[in-house]
Amino acid sequence: MASPLKDWLPSKFALNDQKKLEITWKYFANKMFLEPFFDETINIVNSYSENSRRFKVITDDSLLNNEFCDDHLHPDVFIFHTSRCGSTALTQALTQIPQNIVVSEYGPLDFLLRRTLYSKPEGLEYEELIRKTYLLIDFLGQKRNPDQNKFILKLDSWHLYFAPLLRKLYPNTPFVFLYRNPEEIKFSQQKLPSMHAVPNLIEPQLFNIENLEEFGFHNFIDHVLESYYEQMSTFIKNNNEGVYLFNYSEGMAKIIKDVFGILDIYVDQNTQDKVNQRMEKHSKDSFKKFTKESIPIKVTTSCLKQYELLEKIRKTIL
User: In DSSP terms, which residues pair with 176 in a beta bridge?
Assistant: First the structure.
């Protein structure tokens, strides 16, 4: 018997006036997650009649329960990244295979992970957040069609700091890490900044920052990237099983082929053609032709050193 929540998924988590968790649900019908980011998929399903009514569907967190979760897959790979390093192109390549469930930067998951920063590690509240995180990922992995057999979850860039937590939950799931030369990332971020490139949009303690006043807009991203590279290096040193490290400079064709191999995905010529056609377009906008544009902008010496250290690690695990 199908769950009464069949085809409904959490679209937003929030705390109410009593500091209790509330979940906003959206009806997805059989909508596949093909857009570059999950928020874009939500924008599409907002037009569905079930989501256009006067009153939103908001519940407490008791419905986040295995009882209401239909046939689902566990993640086959987690994708971590430094931003502007090909992670969106990779997930868009993976969406060309209908047997894949591909979820990219899912807001409710971000909410739960960041809430752990405000609870005592290993305390009751912390453990409850971890339990909800696992259940939420189960909900995401529900099959949209019976042929689906792979579940790929791409995280936000600052979720690098939660890799140890996710490794405890999924000890055998491959972790893919993507990164890029910081001078090229900085150029891209200055053109169109992401949340982590703007001071105080993400908790500064994640980036090991005690005094935000030390940073201006143009040098804040240097510190963030330095922290990202250091976090990747530390995690890989402590977790050398099932971890894969890719630099954007290797080329997206190679990275995509290697990740397909990690997932044991066979690609016939027809599918390869679809992947190639998608890669000709901008990863974040399928209506725009992709043109490589990168003018390196200088970053701090310490940032470059952490990048070079990560490069050495990658070359030792090839």
Answer: 79, 244
Looking at the chain, how many residues does it have? 318
128 falls within a domain: no
- The CATH number linked to 153 is 3.40.50.300
Residue 79 lies in a domain: yes
Q: Count of domains in the chain?
A: 1
- Could you list the residue range(s) of the whole structural domain that residue 208 is in? 71-99+149-316
Please list, in sequence order, all residues whose beta carbon lies within 8 angstroms of the beta carbon of residue 60, skipping any fewer than 6 positions away: 20, 21, 22, 23
Q: Is residue 134 part of a domain?
A: no
Query: pTM of the prediction?
Result: 0.95
What would the 3-class secondary structure string for 58-70 be?
EEEHHHCCHHHCC
CA distance 130 to 105: 18
pLDDT in tens, 263-311: 999 999 999 999 999 999 888 877 777 767 777 899 999 999 999 999 9
Distance CA 34, CA 274 (A): 13
In the chain, count H helices and then E strands.
10, 10
Q: Mind spelling out the 3-state secondary structure of 69-113?
A: CCCECCCCEEEEECCCCCHHHHHHHHCCCCCEEEEECCHHHHHHH
3-class SS at 24?
strand
CA distance 243 to 232: 10
Is residue 140 one of the residues assigned to a domain? no
Q: Residue 172 and residue 293: Cα distance in Å, rounded?
A: 37
List C-alpha distances in Å: 228 to 16, 171, 207, 208: 32, 22, 8, 11
Where does residue 56 rank: exposed (0-12), middle (13-18), buried (19+ CB within 10 A)? exposed
Model confidence pLDDT, tens digit, residues 148-180: 999 999 999 999 999 999 999 999 999 999 999
How many C-beta atoms surround the C-beta of residue 35 within 10 A? 20
